[in-house]
Automatic annotation (TrEMBL):
Residues 388-487 form the HTH araC/xylS-type domain. It comes from the Bacteria. InterPro entries: CheY-like_superfamily, Homeodomain-like_sf, HTH_AraC, HTH_AraC-typ_CS, Sig_transdc_resp-reg_receiver, Tscrpt_reg_AraC-type_HTH. This is Uncharacterized protein. Residues 3-115 form the Response regulatory domain. Transmembrane segments: none annotated. Keywords: DNA-binding, Transcription, Transcription regulation. It comes from Heyndrickxia sporothermodurans. PANTHER family: ARAC-FAMILY TRANSCRIPTIONAL REGULATOR, HTH-TYPE TRANSCRIPTIONAL REGULATOR EXSA.
Length: 496
């Protein structure tokens, strides 16, 4: 942190300069003085690195003495564009002379130049103190298990969100003025820098300063991971693996951050598959078009993690399990044509490769909402034939236990008696027989594709109870539900 003193008897002007500097430069602390006595006191007590001296404050022996003893970097501000004013500035070893009016950027540039010069001097001093042979560590040490112990290096990983900007990031790292020169190792998805840990630096501040400077240079986001593990028995290879693993936290917290770790990152185990109860929930949500519950489930299950985080790969598997439920709903509502197929595949790729969990959930919610709306549109508009409309409506509502012919009558705007006659004429079956066929068809899918118990499947497919469902299923299929599931499992096993 650089201390900076502004000496100006115009209080409003001084506060304006303070705001400009502190809002534009991250590592400065600004003090104000509005008279000669306060100026001398701050110079003696605070010993600021940079002294912005406005000539309206005056000059005296005490101030000259304080300047001579403390030797701050002086930015001299005056309204007089004369040789005499320039000579006065030179006499007190001024770094920069600013003639009013000057632009705010001129002042900021001068301050940044002073800071850069100070950092360069500090770096040279540290380099002389910690003269590290850059050939001590080579790529093989990072990748081979038999590499030497880690001391005395601090690992810092710089990972861009977009791999395409790695060359630009590598060049920026090579040219960046660190207090001590790191060993730089460009990799396929990040760059690892090794710093001499004997240099007692504020690593967090150092990396935040780098992040600030990078943001001024480039709009693409990066994350910086500082590995401060102190285990002296770690090899370079082990610490590299730990550092690489730490970068995966971005899946939960995003980029444009500096993250510190003092121990190896440990994942929390989760079951990557939906439980039978959760499968039942999703079937219900999709059938009912319950967007609010879907959004709530996804937010609760995927956006509220804290350390220790679950393994991102397990979360991706869990999301594909949910996508399988959505896929099943798409097929049951005839939404498996090209437009929705392409969107489905895009979401599948997003789940596998998107770098941040929040974006995956956001896109999944939008996609699911679109599927629900499309299914509703189909049920209302896609089928002009009355019986076809009825059958599609039944496929969307078969799960309702109290679903009756009167519901269809209301939906299509036809008399129940007429509709009953039309069913027999068109399908050769009664309304109740058609509804039972649909329910049995869906029950078969659930028996084959899920691990849900028979009682849950009976409830999801609209039957009043398990026993009635089992009786109807046996009459229709020729065997009880459990026997059907066993038979299908054995046939699937023999085929595979």
């Amino acid at each position: 942190m650089y201390n900076l003193l502004i000496a100006d008897n115009d209080e409003f002007e001084a506060k304006g300069m303070k705001w400009l500097i502190e809002s534009s430069i991250s590592n400065v602390h600004v003090k104000l003085a509005h008279n000669l006595i306060d100026t001398v006191m701050v110079l003696e007590n605070e010993q600021p690195h940079i002294f912005i001296y406005e000539t309206n404050i005056g000059m005296g022996e005490e101030l000259l003495k304080a300047i001579k003893i403390n030797q701050p970097n002086i930015i001299y501000i005056t309204m007089e564009a004369t040789f005499e004013a320039a000579k006065k500035a030179i006499d007190i070893s001024t770094k920069f002379l600013l003639i009013k009016p000057f632009s705010p950027q001129e002042l900021l540039n001068n301050i940044n130049l002073i800071i850069r010069e100070h950092e360069r001097q500090t770096k040279d001093k540290l380099e002389r103190t910690f003269n590290t042979d850059k050939q001590n560590v080579v790529y093989e040490h990072l990748f081979l298990a038999e590499s030497s112990f880690i001391e005395p290096y601090v690992f810092v990983a710089f990972q861009p969100e977009k791999v395409s900007i790695l060359p630009k990031l590598n060049q920026f790292l090579k040219e960046y003025l660190f207090p001590i020169t790191p060993m730089i190792f460009p990799l396929s998805d990040m760059t690892i820098c090794l710093f001499n840990s004997q240099a007692e630096l504020d690593w967090n501040y150092l990396c935040k300063r780098f992040m600030y400077d990078w943001d001024q240079f480039e709009s693409e986001s990066i994350v910086i991971i500082i590995n401060l593990e102190e285990n002296p028995y770690l090899s370079l290879h082990e610490k590299y693996l730990h550092t690489k693993k730490m970068t995966e936290v971005t899946f939960f917290v995003g980029y444009r951050q500096v993250l510190e770790f003092t121990s190896e990152l440990q994942w929390k185990f989760i079951d990557p598959f939906l439980t039978p109860s959760e499968q039942k929930q999703w079937i219900s949500y999709l059938n009912e078009g319950n967007k609010e519950e879907i959004s709530s489930f996804l937010s609760r299950e995927f956006l509220q993690f804290t350390n220790p985080f679950p393994d991102p790969s397990l979360l991706r598997i869990r999301l594909t399990s949910i996508l399988a439920q959505i896929r099943r709903h798409m097929k049951s509502t005839n939404l498996d044509h090209k437009l929705y197929e392409e969107e489905y595949l895009t979401i599948f790729d997003t789940i596998l490769y998107e770098t941040i969990i929040f974006r995956i959930i956001q896109k999944l919610i939008i996609f699911t909402s679109k599927i629900i709306d499309a299914a509703a549109d189909i049920s209302q508009n896609s089928y002009t034939d009355i019986i076809e409309k009825c059958l599609k409506y039944m496929e969307l509502n078969y799960w309702k236990k109290d679903f009756a012919l009167s519901d269809l009558s209301t939906f299509v705007g036809r008399n129940s008696t007429y509709l009953s006659h039309l069913f027999v004429e068109k399908t050769k079956k009664t309304f109740r027989e058609c509804l039972t066929d649909i329910r049995i068809k869906e029950a078969k899918k659930l028996l084959i594709e899920t691990d849900m118990v028979v009682k849950e499947i009976a409830s999801l497919t609209g039957f009043q109870n398990q026993y009635y469902f089992s009786r109807v299923f046996k009459n229709s299929v020729g065997m009880p539900p459990k026997q059907f599931r066993t038979k299908e499992s054995l046939e699937h096993f023999s085929r595979s």
